[in-house]
Structures are given as structure tokens and as C-alpha cells.
Structure prediction request, 332 residues.
Amino acid sequence: MSSTGPATDLDQVVLPAIPPVHLLSGQVAALQVTDRLHRGSQIVGRFETSGLAGFKVSAQGRPLRVQLALSADERSVSGWHTGRTDMTGGLPRLLQIRSQGRLRQCVLLRGRKAHARVAFDLTPEEIPDDGLICVEVLDISEGDGVCDELRQAVSGLVVADGVAGVRLDKVVFEEPPATDFDPDTLDGSRCELYSLISGGGLANLNRQGVRPLRSGMFVINPVLKDRFGSSGRITLRLGTRAEPASVIPATWQRVNSELRWLRHATRKLLHAAAPSVERVISVRDGDMGTPDQVVHGNITDLVLPGPATSPLLVIMAPCHGAVPTLESGTAC
Prediction:
């Protein structure tokens, strides 16, 4: 056995991931560090609770774009790994996505078939010489850099231990493209697919059109350089829609549903169905004051600066008998 410095012939050579690369399994050599992440074979892994995954990546002094695919399913509950499960009670999960010690984006997941996309860029200075890139997924109640004002605002409205059982389905490392040709306007579902907003996750990643916001809140994430919204302000067009009457045989539940639909249709005819935003809270800095919102008939335009460093949480006012929706986002 020979040695050179601290290494020996028995040390295994770890081959780094060479961008562009899509990592779809937890059995790859590039996944060097895990903390409370159970490795998978057809997914990267499933989090036991708030945890971390560390990847060895050959960046070679270049910036990197990191993209994650997260999802929740029937096993996404506290205690899933021990067999003693604790149900979530139907509340959404509000999660922090961190990398290299910094908060990058936040994700809101609602239900058991919710998928979310995350995207952020790392500068060459943020990538160490050994190429280790760490991705943390934390509950909103944990870690530093999150203001107490936001934590108090969502207390009781989101799941405690929200990371429990969440799947890390895919990790992508690639160089940021030189130019992105994004449209000036995205529909509500595309806003979520682009990771600009997170409103509970998409069950169908091919869905287009209006995005219902059944959680009564949504996150606006920092925009990527030269991507949609990075040039200045963004306008989010908000609406409402009535829940459709059930197709089951007539019951009091169906009658009540139909009455709610009729009340909402009447409000729309009277141009009184526009939603309202109660608060906009910076995850890092706290309440941003009275939001800039303009009402046009049954539509509310929420105008905000494109967030650069901290996600924003938008909390909607209650829409009795209706569901608030994100109609579209427009880069100003």
C-alpha cells in the first residue's frame, strides 16, 4: 500500500457529476452527503424530516443553475419511516430551499399529489474547490434568516414538520443559458412551473391556464437573472371562481354548493367578486406594508417588485363561497 499525503490506494475515487446532468436516483456516486434523506432508486430520496443532500459537481469555475423537482404523496407524513404515521390534517406545507447556506426559494405544497419546481443559480464563488453543492429542505419554522413576523403569520395555517416524507424526485445541474426567451406574460399554471410562484404544487405538470389558490396564500420566489420578472416589477392578475356543484345525487351538501355558486355568479354580475390581498410578507424582512393592488371589475392586479433576494408570502383575504385564483403574471 502506498500513500501520497492523506490519500491511500484504498481510497475510492469519487467521480463528480459533470454538467449538464440530470440525477434521478439516490444511488449515484455524486450524492456524497445525506442528512435525514433516505436514498431512493427511482427518485433521489425521501426526507425523514428537514434534511440535506450534498452533491459533488465538476463546476470548473463556471456558474451553475440548480433545478429541483419535489413532490408529496400518500407517504409524505411524519413518522413514515417508522410505520407510526401522523396525518397532516389537510394543511399545506411551507418549505425553505437552501443551498450553500443561503435561502434560495420557498415552496408551498398542498395535498398528496403535489409537484413543485425549484430553480436558482450559484456563482463560481459559491462553489468550493471540492465541488460539494449542498441542498437543504427545511420547514419554515427552522433555521435562521426567516423573520418571526412570517412565522407568526403562518402558525396554525401550515403543517408542522412539513418536510416529513417529501420526495426529492430529480436534481439538475447545468450552466445558465446565455439568454432566456421568456414571454412577457405567463398564465397562472406556467408561473408555478417556472418556479416564479408556489401556490400548493401542480398535480399535472402539463396543466395550463388559471391556477386555483385553495390555500389562501402563495409564495413569490426570487427570479433568475435574465428570466421572467428580472427586469423590474411584476403584475399578478388575481380572480375568483366558485366551487362547482357536486355531481353526486342531491343532498344538502350539493344544495349548499349550488347556492354558493349562485351567490358567486351574482357577485360577478355586480362586479363585486374581485379578491383582495391582506398582506405581503418578505420571508427575510417582514411585512412590506400596504400592497399595491388595483381592482378592475372582478379582477385584482397585484403589482410588486420582482423579488431578488428573499421570497415573498402573499396572504389573501377570505373569499366566502369562492376560491381565489391566479390568472396570469406579467413582467413590467
User: Anything to note?
Assistant: The chain has three helices and 22 strands.
